[in-house]
UniProtKB/TrEMBL annotation:
Domain Phytocyanin: 29-149
Pfam families attached to this UniProt entry: Cu_bind_like
Entry superkingdom: Eukaryota
Gene: LOC111460257
Descriptive protein name: Cucumber peeling cupredoxin-like
Classification of source organism: Eukaryota, Viridiplantae, Streptophyta, Embryophyta, Tracheophyta
Biased composition annotated in UniProt, kind: Pro residues: 157-167
UniProt-listed Gene3D superfamilies: Cupredoxins - blue copper proteins
Amino acid sequence: MAVETAAFTAVVALLITAAASQTPPTAYSNHTVGGPAGWFFNATKNISATNYSSWAASQTFNLGDFLIFRTNSNQTVIQTYNLTTFQSCSFDDASDNDTVQYNGGDTDFNKPLIIQVPLTIKGSNYFFSDANDGVQCQEGMAFEIQVNTGLGLPPSLNQPPPPPYATPPDSNSAQMPPLMIPQTKDNGSSKTIANSRRELFFIAVMVLLLLC
Ligand SMILES: *[C@@H]1O[C@H](CO)[C@@H](O)[C@H](O)[C@H]1NC(C)=O
Ligand SMILES: *[C@@H]1O[C@H](CO)[C@@H](O)[C@H](O)[C@H]1NC(C)=O
Ligand SMILES: *[C@@H]1O[C@H](CO)[C@@H](O)[C@H](O)[C@H]1NC(C)=O
Ligand SMILES: *[C@@H]1O[C@H](CO)[C@@H](O)[C@H](O)[C@H]1NC(C)=O
Ligand SMILES: *[C@@H]1O[C@H](CO)[C@@H](O)[C@H](O)[C@H]1NC(C)=O
Ligand SMILES: *[C@@H]1O[C@H](CO)[C@@H](O)[C@H](O)[C@H]1NC(C)=O
Ligand SMILES: *[C@@H]1O[C@H](CO)[C@@H](O)[C@H](O)[C@H]1NC(C)=O
Ligand SMILES: *[C@@H]1O[C@H](CO)[C@@H](O)[C@H](O)[C@H]1NC(C)=O
């Protein structure tokens, strides 16, 4: 029994080590929108600072990546999953569940902004600036990206609903003597598994004795 349990412990330790040393094939990326040009509208030339569609076509986007908008308060950042909203260059009629405004309504011009947008939904994501009553959008401040699965959403962006409330452990329980089956070879995280194996073994013996 002791030898068997020790061997079992060693196998569990090996499995844990193997799982911990697995590294993902690629990493999450941050994409600076427009590259060095940033996210700007040139009011003098009445055109976007760069061709954002060309920029988007040069990138590969995956779930969990971020778009980094280096901009100022002259532009806005609107994200939508709704093609109609995108094509209208306005989110006045948009639904809350498919369109997000990351900034806007600022009455000060030229205020520097860095806006970080996580990509959390696969497929078509649309971005535009609705400033100047849609003229910025009509004149190039709009682009579409396709978001691929990649590594999938990281836990930080994939938040499940909060777990049900659990009563905190009784503070008295810390002072009670630990309830343990005496044994010497088990240690660390394998203890619970080894103990339950031992329990199963005893149950099996009891059943056998009863049957005899
Ligand atoms: C990407 O941007 C996010 C949000 O600012 C940040 O938490 C993350 O560390 C950045 N990742 C890389 C690889 O720069
Ligand atoms: C807009 O374009 C003009 C002409 O090319 C240039 O002189 C000016 O610096 C640009 N403005 C901005 C804010 O990029
Ligand atoms: C910029 O272009 C729009 C058309 O998209 C036009 O309505 C507007 O008058 C132009 N503005 C300037 C300052 O040229
Ligand atoms: C931007 O680039 C795309 C190709 O990536 C092209 O179809 C489009 O006409 C360009 N827009 C402007 C305003 O030059
Ligand atoms: C921001 O908008 C204001 C007001 O239209 C203009 O004077 C200023 O040049 C703009 N700044 C940039 C960087 O485009
Ligand atoms: C897109 O938004 C419009 C309102 O702007 C709405 O009428 C339409 O149903 C939406 N489309 C989808 C596919 O949700
Ligand atoms: C928004 O809600 C409508 C119905 O309320 C639904 O048809 C649509 O798929 C939702 N869109 C998103 C992006 O969840
Ligand atoms: C359990 O591991 C600790 C170090 O993590 C060690 O000090 C202790 O002697 C080990 N106990 C047994 C029974 O192997």
